[in-house]
Amino acid sequence: MSKTVIAELQWFDAKHGGRPAPPPGPKYSTVARFDAQGEEWLKDAWSLVIQFIEQPDASRSHRVKVTFLSEKAPEQLLANGSAFDLMEGRRAVARGTIVSD
To answer: How much is the pLDDT for 2?
Structure first.
């Protein structure tokens, strides 16, 4: 089974290129762009499974559990402090930071 970590997640609103509303949960999966990958993420993209621990607050932020969809994914990307964007196509819809590994 893949490593599971806790992240703080901030959903972008539609005015800033995000979604009209965060997904309803309790799970959501999409491609992630990790800061540590730079532009290489386009060649080596990995999908994350996001499990809501709590619902987003009024500012659209909340804590979530994060794991890779694939067991072959590079787990070092899930290190404490690692930052990532959740992507829907070429559009970033949320920003996350790993807070507990």
So the answer is: 79
